[in-house]
Amino acid sequence: MGMVSRFFWGFGRLLAYPVIRPMETIVASSRRISSDVRDYRELRARRRAELDEASAQEGAGLAAMSDRDRFEALVAMNGWTPAELARQLLAVRRTKLMAICGSVAGTVLAMASMFLVPVWILFVIAPAAALFVIMGLIRTLQFGLFQAQLEQRRLMKFHVYLGRQDLFEHLFS
C-alpha cells in the first residue's frame, strides 16, 4: 500500500508542479520587490530630509525661487548631468508614447468587445476598459508635463502646462 500511495503522491506532485513553481516564483519576486520598494522609500526619505536641510541652510525655500531656478536646483541637488537629462527625456517620451498606445488599445478593445462577446460580459469589460483608457490619458498628460519640464528646463505647474497653446501638438510629439 505504501508503494501505491508514493506513486500517487509523486504523480500528484508532477501534475501540480506547473502550478506550484510559478506561484513560488511569484512569491519570491514579490518579496524582492517589496524589499526594493522599502529601500527606495528609505532613500527617498533621506533625500527629502537632505533637501529640506539644504533649503533651510540657504535661507530661501525652493517655493520662493523661479521655475527655472528650482529646476536648476533640482538638477544640482541630484547631480544630474546633461547626458542623464537627455536619457530621462528619452524615457519620458517613450513612456508617454506607451500611455497613448495603451489608451488607443483600450478603446479598440472596448469597441471590438461590443461585437465579439456576449452582452453580460460587457458589464465587466466596459468599466475596466474605460478605467484603462482614463488612466492612459492621465499618464499621457503627466508625462507630457515631465517632457515639457525637461525640454524647457523649468518646473512649470500642471495648470500652466494645460494652458499651453500647443498642448495637443506637444502631447503627440
Write the layout of secondary structure elements.
Elements: H1 2-58, H2 67-78, H3 82-116, H4 119-152, H5 158-162, H6 167-171
Helix pairs in contact: 3-4
Description:
The chain is mainly α and 173 residues long. It has two domains: 1-59; 65-173. The protein has helices at 2-58, 67-78, 82-116, 119-152, 158-162, 167-171. Helix 3 packs antiparallel against helix 4 (119-152). The N and C termini lie far apart (72 Å). 6% of the residues are buried.
Residue-averaged pLDDT: 82
Alpha carbon gyration radius: 25 Å
What kind of sheet is the major sheet?
Answer: none
How many helices? The count is 6
Shape, please?
Answer: flat
Strand proportion, as a percent range, falls in: under 5%
> How many DSSP-defined strands?
0
Helix/strand-derived class?
mainly alpha
Order of helices and strands: HHHHHH
Whole-number tally of structural domains: 2
Please provide a brief summary of the model.
The protein has six helices and no strands.
Question: What brief labels describe this structure?
Answer:
6 helices; mainly alpha; 2 domains; 173 residues
